[in-house]
Design brief:
Blueprint lengths: L2 H16 L2 E6 L6 H12 L3 H14 L1 E7 L1 H13 L3 E4 L1
Antiparallel strand pairs: 1-2, 1-3
Helix pairs in contact: 2-3, 2-4
Pfam family, one: ClpS
Protein name: ATP-dependent Clp protease adaptor protein ClpS
Organism: Cellulophaga geojensis KL-A
């Protein structure tokens, strides 16, 4: 294996690890579907349909991954969700 191939392989592994975080949204009995959908559109840049699908998954499954990416990108998004009264965490 050449040095260039080894470097590219290491770079790909680093990129994959860097985007391994996700925001998980949890179900609650307080927030309405409309509030959850509007908040996902605002905080996570979802389309209305994508946000609606996530809201239904959270309702029926108890939780749903709503955004993946780097921790630096996810932290302010998760903070917006929490400030809106939703239950979410970065894992």
């Amino acid at each position: 294996m050449s040095n260039q191939e080894k470097y590219l392989e290491e770079l790909l592994v680093e990129e994959e690890v860097a985007n391994n975080n996700e925001i998980v949204l949890f179900n609650d009995d307080v927030n309405t579907f409309d509030h959850v959908i509007d908040t996902l559109v605002d905080a996570c840049d979802h389309t209305p349909i994508q946000a609606e699908q996530c809201a239904f998954l959270v309702h029926y499954k108890g939780k749903c991954t709503v955004k993946t990416g780097s921790y630096k990108d996810l932290e302010p998004r998760c903070s917006k969700l929490l400030q809106a009264g939703l239950s979410a965490e970065i894992v």
